[in-house]
Write a structure and sequence with these properties.
2 copies of one chain form a homodimer.
Chain A lengths: L6 H11 L8 E2 L2 H7 L2 E6 L9 H10 L3 H6 L1 E4 L3 H13 L3 E6 L4 H9 L3 E5 L3 H15 L2 E2 L6 H17 L5 E5 L4 H13 L4 E7 L5 H7 L21 H10 L2 E5 L1 H15 L9 H8 L1 H4 L3 E6 L12
Parallel strand pairs in A: 2-10, 3-4, 3-6, 4-5, 7-8, 7-10, 8-9
Antiparallel strand pairs in A: 1-2
Chain lengths: 315, 315
């Protein structure tokens, strides 16, 4: 797709991926609502296939390719959930996934890709090396590159989490998501714009990867002043496509510290009894930080994933 | 109730407590099924009110009292989930809960009871002190004592988790639960006996609190050879009521080590993305230990609770 997805394209994406993904549950907690002073509906993408919402976007992008393109395989560079999403999608269409990963990627991530039959191609841990290695894969195999977020088919896929949330929970006033590269946030904002135009979309971003809030202000893809955060899924900058959508349809981006992220993450583990990764707690941390703003409202929060190293918990 | 609950008494218990408890979800995981070689349906009582199945039994026992009894209050001795269950049930009928707790009970447990308006009466950390302190409460207030497990109304309440599971998942071959005092296991066995008489009920018990497996053999309430296990919810011996039901309707009790419990717990956290307490992982550990026995079967497992100190995880 070469344009911002329309409502019907998002709905088509949803139909397309439905057989391959989970319709994830929405959880609530009376004690969290009491503490937060509003009604929160958590859309649990930590229960999604591969443990993260990324399964939606990767699946839609791969299913949207022509049979000829699919046959030659799919490639991407990622050390995170998008790598597994592409490997899963390649299985769904019976093709190969070539995943470029930095040589220092944790074994747990490599094993996740291998378990889904993905072929790992290691490279130096720099963006340049990643991109040139992907280029080599493309030249060798003819595989199609699927960008983790700056891709309209991926964005349409990520939007389907919000389509499900809005279809299930009525009268939401606010919908929240974290922002890294902005694929999920773009999709969330688009779906909300089309289906619930009076609701606000508000993002959370870590203080230690605060690029999106800058880009949001200047209108250019900015780098973060510094990168140091526990929310390791949110370290990337926006892309031109995600920036445009976010500038148009997102109301605000709230910055939170790692301490606030860890406290919010712990609350969700304790009260909802679910495992979420730190990146995932960012919008809830933002809500708790600016409680007054959300007082008495009905708030949907996309919980993005649950792939966390249990041996390295921050509490 | 002064007799083993009948099917209709269990069904009445279910109707009685429904407005006050959650109908908890059943979760599955393709990767866990692959690894275990069977199909497992996890009944997630970690999502229950107060974070544990105990809400069911406590609620049923308290709701079954006469208005005169309810008015005088409820008492129990417990430093665990049953304390919160009774406090919650007391709120439901608008009465007082007097919870006798050992003076060395962790603050997190005390705070849980206080948050539910329970009155804590501290005593020395011995069973004798607990019982005599409860006796004093009864003499002073006229409150009714609700035993954590050796009580038919409590057992009928715990049985309702299995009623829901069997109502939702067809053709189960085996239903599994952990065994501590045996309230949950008795309820599970009764509900299965009435509703799915061809299914087997198999329990898991920690090696470091292996009293039930002995009692199961001898027919008397036996003590464990030694007590040392991470499964802190399963340290008590059976009661006469639970022993009788378990001897009649349970097929087998499988013993597992703490290492096996921790490995099973970690797998559930990683794959199902949910928070469960160690006691809760015991039946799944038992299944993994005797995989061949469960091969290709449809197995329901009651996940009992998710109240775990995140600061003291075993991995």
């Amino acid at each position: 797709m070469n344009h911002i997805p329309t409502l019907s394209e998002i709905q088509e994406a949803h139909e397309r991926i439905k057989p391959f993904i989970h319709h994830t549950p929405v959880l609530t907690s009376a004690s969290i609502n009491q503490l937060a002073g509003c009604e929160i509906y958590f859309k649990c993408e930590n229960f999604q296939k591969i443990g993260a919402f990324k399964a939606r976007g990767g699946m839609n992008a791969v299913l949207s390719l022509s049979p000829e393109e699919q046959e030659k395989g799919i490639t991407t560079h990622s050390s995170g959930n998008h790598a597994q999403a592409i490997a899963l999608a390649a299985i769904a269409v019976g093709t190969k996934a070539y995943i470029v990963m930095p040589s220092n990627a944790p074994n747990i991530k490599k094993n996740g890709v291998k378990a889904l039959n993905g072929e790992i191609i290691e490279c130096e841990p720099t963006l340049e090396a990643r991109e040139s290695t992907v280029q080599q894969v493309i030249e060798r195999t003819g595989a199609t590159f699927v960008h983790p977020f700056n891709n309209y088919d991926v964005i349409a896929g990520q939007a389907t989490a919000t389509v499900e949330l809005i279809g299930e929970v009525t009268h939401l006033d606010v919908i929240m998501a974290p922002v890294g590269g902005g694929g999920l946030l773009s999709g969330t904002a688009l779906a909300t714009h089309y289906l619930l135009p009076n609701a606000e979309v508000i993002a959370g971003e870590p203080e230690g990867a605060a690029d999106a809030v800058l880009s949001f202000q200047t209108g250019k893809v900015e780098k973060a002043p510094y990168i140091k955060t526990i929310a390791d899924g949110l370290m990337t900058t926006l892309g031109d496509k995600t920036l445009e959508i976010i500038r148009k349809y997102v109301k605000d981006i709230i910055i939170v510290s790692d301490e606030e992220i860890i406290a919010a993450m712990k609350l969700i583990w304790e009260r909802l009894k679910i495992v979420i990764e730190p990146s995932c707690a960012v919008p809830f941390a933002a809500l708790l930080k600016e409680k007054e703003r959300f007082k008495g409202k009905r708030v949907g929060i996309i919980l993005t994933g649950g792939n966390v190293d249990l041996g390295k918990l921050p509490f």
